């Protein structure tokens, strides 16, 4: 009996995803989309490798508490900062057009790619962080 190729493919995909948890699937979805968004919104300054641009733009750094990272992605940052012992004083523009899901995906990508995390950043974490935001948190 001949089984159509489409059914064989569907069964293969179903068997693979049947062994992966929902959290792992969501992490992978956020990671892939976060990589795309990072390329659009972040890589021009922070570069594709996250190492920044000479003495102009800092490499990415990972506060233990993601709240600061989330707030900076959304609201930008002005004033001098020091990263890895080097001072930088160029403003990072705000990204008011980014939605909470976009920020969750970028955060997932960055923290999984360079921050040694293996889970995704839930959209509820981003919503709460942005809801509780105070301008003084960025100083």
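^ Assign residues to that structure.
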């Amino acid at each position: 009996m001949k089984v159509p190729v489409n059914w064989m493919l569907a069964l293969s995909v179903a068997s693979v995803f049947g062994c992966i948890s929902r959290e792992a699937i969501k992490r992978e979805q956020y990671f892939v989309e976060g990589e795309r968004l990072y390329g659009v919104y972040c890589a021009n300054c922070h570069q594709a490798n996250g190492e920044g641009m000479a003495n102009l733009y800092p490499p990415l750094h990972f506060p233990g508490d993601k709240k600061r990272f989330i707030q900076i992605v959304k609201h930008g940052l002005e004033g001098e900062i020091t990263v890895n012992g080097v001072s930088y004083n160029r403003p990072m523009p705000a990204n008011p057009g980014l939605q909470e899901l976009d920020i969750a995906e970028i955060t997932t990508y960055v923290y999984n790619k360079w921050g040694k995390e293996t889970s995704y950043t839930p959209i509820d974490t981003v919503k709460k962080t942005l809801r509780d935001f105070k301008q003084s948190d960025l100083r």
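The first strand starts at residue 81 and ends at 83.
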